[in-house]
Known about the structure:
Structural class: alpha/beta
CATH class of the largest domain: Alpha Beta
Number of strands: 7
CATH superfamily of the largest domain: Spore Coat Polysaccharide Biosynthesis Protein SpsA, Chain A
Largest sheet: 7 strands, mixed
Shape: elongated
Amino acid sequence: xxxxxxxxxxxxxxxxxxxxxxxxxxxxxxxxxxxxxxxxxxxxxxxxxxxxxxxxxxxxxxxxxxxxxxxxxxxxxxxxxxxxxxxxxxxxxxxxxxxxxxxxxxxxxxxxxxxxxxxxxxxxxxxxxxxxxxxxxxxxxxxxxxxxxxxxxxxxxxxxxxxxxxxxxxxxxxxxxxxxxxxxxxxxxxxxxxxxxxxxxxxxxxxxxxxxxxxxxxxxxxxxxxxxxxxxxxxxxxxxxxxxxxxxxxxxxxxxxxxxxxxxxxxxxxxxxxxxxxxxxxxxxxxxxxxxxxxxxxxxxxxxxxxxxxxxxxxxxxx
Length: 319
């Protein structure tokens, strides 16, 4: 299998026939073996019935995964990736706002030597205030914090080489951060403008609350990328700063004694002692986190590096 198309589906009954029509039209132009995996994420309409009909009519290409309940887009994408057989994986939404006709463009760019090609909805057809503006803020924030500069993290339409998805798992709502995780294992990333259409049927499942979730997820991503293998840098650094402030505060109170200014009655005494204790506890927490990080890597024999390829070597390292 050369190519796996993965599409999460949630209440897209009316869009599915149009989606399949567009996919078949596009894939007739691509000379590759392919499959499409549609993951029904607990739809409440007849989406699963429609998917079953297409799967029975085309068992060669159509695969369906039905989740027991609505787990969210990230879980649906993870399920599709886990069952995909292709060496190249393309993700896109089922609401037809992503255009399957752009898939050949992504694949051509991927063949230029990239490991991941991300779609950029340059002319986005969504509500400017409720969706586009918060999205611009989120994209700018993610790019600044992670160092992976993309215009459109929220665009599901992306193409991946399978090995670019190795070395990490997706949890919560982390699917938008796949380029960041892929970059952390050495993937070469490109971005390509793609078409974007207004939704024909159904309604969007995301609103302004998604921006808050992105910001909270960003804290997790930054920690995992920068401090998961050396948590003492975060906890120890914060602890050292707190202890330094606390000791400066106490030193100031000690110096004031030469002018007969009592320290016991000053709230600075309690603050200084509290900061020193909190700093020491933070350093101890960092040491505990170091032990946990080592237990995690060693118990799973998970290396702290990733290999792109080897020459004249076995793919499996020695025990």
